[in-house]
Amino acid sequence: MKKFLCLIILIIGLPAFAKVISGEIKKETKRNINQIYDNNTNTPIEGAVIKIPAKNYETVTKKDGSFKLQTKIDSPTIMSVAKSGYKPYSLTLNQNPKSPIQVGIEKTTPQDIIVETDMIHIGDDSYSSRSANAGEFSLNSSGFFYTKDFNVKPIKQEEELILVIGSIIGIDTLEAQKMGQSRVLTAYSSPPEVFFNGAKIAEIKINADGQKIIIPKGLIKQNNNVTIKTGHNLYKVNTVDYDDIEFTNLLLEIK
To answer: pTM for the full model?
Structure first.
């Protein structure tokens, strides 16, 4: 992968009511240490748990919010940040980061719904070494789709319910190939699909952090379900060859 971009989810063939907005990464590089801090108050956060699942590495921030990464980063790799009272956060580190890693995280609100904080791997455990992030997969597949149930309190007419996908890797679409994320040159896959209460609301065509999807209001109920299905190799005709992907930190927030 040449470069990891935090842009937008690209959508085709979706209902007119489905909207997608760009994701954000709240990082700064004004300090000279790796540090986690409160994005609103700019104060350091002690006790935040830093994980790099692909390296089986975990550490905790000190009183000044600082932390050390004592593991080799040799390709784009997901790093997650967790702290009680704060929204789960993740970003994809490029290999051997030379600049200090500065991450501002935000406190949760009563309306936030944390859907998933674990790393999830879906696919069929059959993939090329040239597949996007193949060397950084940390788990075996749990199937070709992921699904989770949750409740949502009534939201106001002027509010939006937004699904945030913290980080996702492994996507081998044509778009990912053109961006240099996938090095598989002889084939490409269909994009992973996102469903809300059974209705398709998005297709994810690139590997990225902080991708956000606005949930159509007509789909929201008290009891809800989100499903992510991986894509499949479009060059296979007699058998289904599922694309292996990993993602973490699914959050529903109201804006």
So the answer is: 0.84
